[in-house]
Amino acid sequence: VVVCDVSGSMEQYSRVLLKFIYVISNSLDKVEAFVFSTRLTRITRQLQGGNVDRILDQVAASIHDWGGGTRLGDAFKTFNYDWGRRVLGRGAIVLVVSDGLDRGDIDLLDREMHRLHLNCQRLIWLNPLLGSTNYEPLARGMRAALPYIDDFLPAHNLSSLEQLGQLLERLDKNRP
What we know:
Layout: E1 2-5, H1 11-27, E2 33-36, E3 40-42, H2 52-62, H3 72-87, E4 93-97, H4 106-119, E5 122-127, H5 140-145, E6 151-154, H6 158-173
Parallel strand pairs: 1-2, 1-4, 4-5, 5-6
Antiparallel strand pairs: 2-3
């Protein structure tokens, strides 16, 4: 399961990361994909087959809050209540792609991250800012999410995405 932030602060990364999600969705079985800014939108069906650039243009056009603010807690609450039971079965691995900058309710984010962590096999957070040598997780959303994250990884270049691929391969080999 991939949940990707497409808010204004993620704008410079969103298109590249969505191409990555497109590749994952079309290469692996049973991948569910969601994007959020102020609200969550499922894009799984939109990512199937076709020309990647045309598909991403259509996805961007269909997301009303693309490039808007970020409400992580609201997005995860919608995910947990509306989609969690459907997509988190059988030991799902959840990839969250976000810089952790948030304008929403931090207590809500804490509760929903806890709920999400309890319902998935592994919670991996990809943060493009983590690639910077002087990055510290000072944003309040990132600080609230950190206790529930199993793997906190950068997502700022191809090498960092290869690192994620290696982690996913190791996790897959260790599955019963």
